[in-house]
Amino acid sequence: MKIALLGLGTVGRGVVEVINENKDSIAKRAGQPIEVKYILDIRDFEDEEVGRLIVKDFNIILNDEEIEIVAEAMGGVEPAYTYAKASLSKGKSFVTSNKELVALYGAELLELAKNNEVNFLFEASVGGGIPIIRPLNQSLTADEIYEITGILNGTTNFILTKMKEEGRNFEDVLKEAQALGYAEKNPEADVEGYDACRKVAILSSLAFGEHVSYQDIPTEGITKITKEDMAYAEQIGCVIKLLATCQKQDGTIFARVAPVLISKSHPLAMVNDVFNGIFVKGNVIGEVMFYGRGAGKLPTASAVVADIVDAAKHKGTNIISLWNREKIELKDKDQVKVRYFVRLQKDEACIENVVKEIFGDTEEVQSPYNEYAFITNIETEEQFAEKVSRLAGFTIMNKIRIEK
Amino acid sequence: MKIALLGLGTVGRGVVEVINENKDSIAKRAGQPIEVKYILDIRDFEDEEVGRLIVKDFNIILNDEEIEIVAEAMGGVEPAYTYAKASLSKGKSFVTSNKELVALYGAELLELAKNNEVNFLFEASVGGGIPIIRPLNQSLTADEIYEITGILNGTTNFILTKMKEEGRNFEDVLKEAQALGYAEKNPEADVEGYDACRKVAILSSLAFGEHVSYQDIPTEGITKITKEDMAYAEQIGCVIKLLATCQKQDGTIFARVAPVLISKSHPLAMVNDVFNGIFVKGNVIGEVMFYGRGAGKLPTASAVVADIVDAAKHKGTNIISLWNREKIELKDKDQVKVRYFVRLQKDEACIENVVKEIFGDTEEVQSPYNEYAFITNIETEEQFAEKVSRLAGFTIMNKIRIEK
After folding, report:
1. Are strands B210-211 and B324-327 parallel, antiparallel or unpaired?
2. Which of A121, A136, B136, B401 has the least C-beta neighbours within 10 A?
3. Co-location of A270 and A301 in the same domain
4. Pick from B24, B41, B30: nearest CA to B2
5. Phi, psi of A310 (to 5 degrees)
6. ipTM of the complex
7. Looking at the whole model, is its pTM more than 0.90?
8. A189 is in which domain, residue-wise?
9. d(Cα A74, Cα A96) in Å, to the nearest integer?
10. Based on the domain organization, do B211 and B301 belong to the same domain?
11. Residues of B with catalytic function
């Protein structure tokens, strides 16, 4: 089977490498050999073996009837979206690692694939090589999923792990991550949680069967987490993780990306460094977790190539995927129930009494600093915010959601 | 789509429950409603709703052309094997949670399914509800798998967790596990590692594509592990887990079930209580882990029903599965390389010198008992056994493989 690859960046190169390196086992699994016939890229790569496969005009790929699968590894919404629509409409399966494309147009492209009896596959768009999209679609089919919570961004997890283990501050570790190539020069997409937000939008759309817009998901990053927060976490037997979550609560769906204090005994607590972990809860299976490298050239290529194999095996058959274009109205974020860990500067003697009066019975946390720290009871975000507003005059060092 | 269920024991009841409870979402995923038409059982269940579905004669099921899928939850090799062959030969897909049946006849039944353009599916036979068979077959297809290591038995993991956390001895915790229903009255299949052995035989056959006989896999249980071993483990930053493993080493395949000391930072170290964890290493993806409840009525039923959905979706198409009938010759177990943690009773003053002379430079472990404890260098099982034989005259308290 002949395929075309769009984009010869890091992931694209990985795809070519994997297809060459594991040629025989891939042919066995796909039922036939897989061969890259074209690579679309604006560059020439004249000095390299792959240079002879380079084309500049997407129409060459589109109009070649031999090409049955198009694999996209360019990133960005355009021209990926246009190419995806054109490929699927021409009866070619389309495989992508592009979380932006999938988060925005997944429902539409799945429908287009179905109408053309081909497949739109995107295992690599979430969790890199970790099998999560296919298990959600094909393994957890007996279950009604009511929660997915994951560490979906390797860069921020690396930063939080280093901050915890080495007692260092955010900016300091971010610089190291940038030097190591784990974080971009402009790290915003990672550290502000935008990357995780797109990924959890994809997962929730698949889990609940209707479209979740990533723009609707309240998203907080890790830039405000300090080494002092880490020290508190340790003291109360917790770790701080950037969790992306979607949950069914009282019949409505709620999603969020935010740093959260979780107990050290939670399976996600041991997901460290650049690893990702995705925790899924279903009404039959209970809890399952998927763990592995969430990014990187080869892990991502592994998922792209597995999708290519799947598309080859399912030639002429659309693999059912439930993700309608109908949009899910997410629960009002102010009505979501939460508990917070709060740190106040101890600038007034009466602080404990004030906290008690506003928050009622809270759980006090011993502070190694000149602070008063406590954990609230469960209440809505709105109720919490209202109480916090009454702390005017006090200096709030930080407030972090806690689940334990 | 009409299906038949063989056996209304714990798992069988779970299957009926799940199909009723999640009827709508299952119908969506399968593309059509799934209905249990017959249940084969020797009992009557006259007082129950399901009583009307009971049949005593398998031929009623076999000869009913409406039945397209047969789900088996009886356990044991016979008559499950006969029913599986008959069903597949008649063009009915066969779904099972029966690890014994799959470990013995997986290759043959997969071939039979292929020849009849139906499917033989067995997700529930390993890891209960954890998706592992389908990910191996369909997600990790770009990879050459070179290792699978897992905690595959919930009962022994519960016992080891309790021994560690509560400083109790094996027999003591076993009694509690029996009282709680986690361990059988005759606990041999679990505590001697036989259950894990069958499961790792299935995983290795799928990963390496040829048949691994479970009878060939060297298997040790956990009956010799003591609370003193647990104390040592803690001291050197390790935990003791019953690990089932298969690995490609220098071109040959090696498998084993045994208790092993692993570092606390290993992802499998946090798999506690009755949970299972399966660690897979591939040449592209790196490491991935699957975690969840490895047994129990509903988790197991979740996997059985997911297989039923998959069989319904793939009506008329055999899902390629690579597990040939050709048998793999496993590596000679004496030639496998290992490190051991060894505890000797300190009954002679010169013990340190003797150990040094026999084992060379070892890593000494501080002992809180009247013992001399150390960790060997990496060598073959044969070399280690030869050295141990030279310790005649000393009392060996225990020796446990260590990987860290």
Report:
1. parallel
2. B401
3. no
4. B30
5. -65, -40
6. 0.93
7. yes
8. 136-293
9. 9
10. no
11. 199
